[in-house]
Design a protein that fits this description.
mainly alpha, Glycerol uptake facilitator protein, 2 domains, 15 helices, globular
Length: 292
């Protein structure tokens, strides 16, 4: 009987070994590709193409989508208020009630509705690629249409919630108090606090948009984690915060000038957080990588 090592050198054994090695290499390469995160340039290109498509959409389509988003974000206001009003007052209450803040964002993002703070990233990439007046006009058209539609939806929802007796009868006094308190919280903040909170909210939402192309099956988790953090931190979001503060103006002693004192720093902060911290820096890293 020949020694065991001789069998490994036979043509048949060599053929089988080579075949097995080839199969393993092919399977291994596929697994490596599946487990390797795409380079930043790939994510950049996905968002860039999506932005180019959005910039081509007619203003009417953007308006209706933005109006739907403004209305849908009311569920973040309601979710937060309902949970906060039904939970007992305790130090851990915000840890649970902040999950209600995520509901409206889930509806808007998974429903592909147009939200202004998402667009602090996407249309900026084409503008950074093509620094021209026509492109700037296109971006401003998209921004203006979506922001106006978002705020109109926010106002309509705040009017319905504040003027309808049905909701007053349905909800416990604690819930109504929680809804009012969330708006008064933002109205009581200083300009600088609202501005800094707006930067963080815009920063986090733009980061979420950047992560979503690779999230695939984890999209819901990414949206929930990011927006939960915004709600828990009390960071100022210009649209959800508008629903909260408009509600406080319509049912309480607050004034529209106080609303504007919240909205302006929140809006500017959201834009700076999304455009400068996320869009510009991620554009720079991709362009620098290509030039290198």
């Amino acid at each position: 009987m020949p020694p065991e090592s001789d069998y490994a050198d036979t043509p048949r054994e060599q053929e089988l070994t080579s075949q097995a090695k080839g199969d393993f290499d092919e399977q291994g390469e596929e697994q490596v590709r599946e487990r390797t995160a795409p380079p930043a340039a790939v994510i950049y290109e996905v968002i860039l193409r999506e932005a180019q498509d959005e910039l081509k959409r007619p203003s009417q389509a953007l308006f209706w989508s933005g109006l739907a988003a403004g209305l849908s974000l009311g569920f973040s206001f309601l979710g937060l208020g309902l949970l906060k009003g039904m939970l007992p007052e305790a130090p851990w209450t915000p840890l649970l009630s902040s999950f209600g803040y995520t509901i409206g964002f889930l509806v808007v993002i998974l429903g592909r509705q147009q939200l202004f703070t998402e667009n602090t990233l996407t249309p900026i990439l084409p503008l950074l690629r093509e620094k021209s007046m026509p492109m700037l006009v296109s971006v401003l058209r998209l921004w203006g249409t979506i922001l106006f539609a978002n705020l109109l939806g926010a106002l309509l929802l705040a009017l319905v919630l504040s003027q309808s007796e049905l909701f007053s009868e349905m909800w416990r006094p604690e819930v109504r108090a929680a809804l009012l308190e969330s708006g008064e919280h933002f109205l009581d903040l200083s300009f600088s606090s609202t501005f800094v909170g707006g930067i963080f909210a815009g920063w986090l939402l733009a980061l979420m948009v950047w992560m979503l192309p690779y999230a695939e099956k984890e999209k819901v988790l990414v949206i929930v984690v990011i927006t939960y953090l915004i709600g828990l931190g009390g960071f100022a979001h210009c649209v959800v915060g508008s629903i909260e503060t408009m509600y406080a103006v319509l049912v309480g002693p607050a004034t529209w000038s106080e609303y504007l004192a919240f909205f302006i720093p929140a809006l500017v902060g959201n834009i700076l957080g999304g455009v400068i911290i996320v869009a510009v820096l991620n554009h720079a890293q991709v362009v620098s990588g290509r030039s290198g």
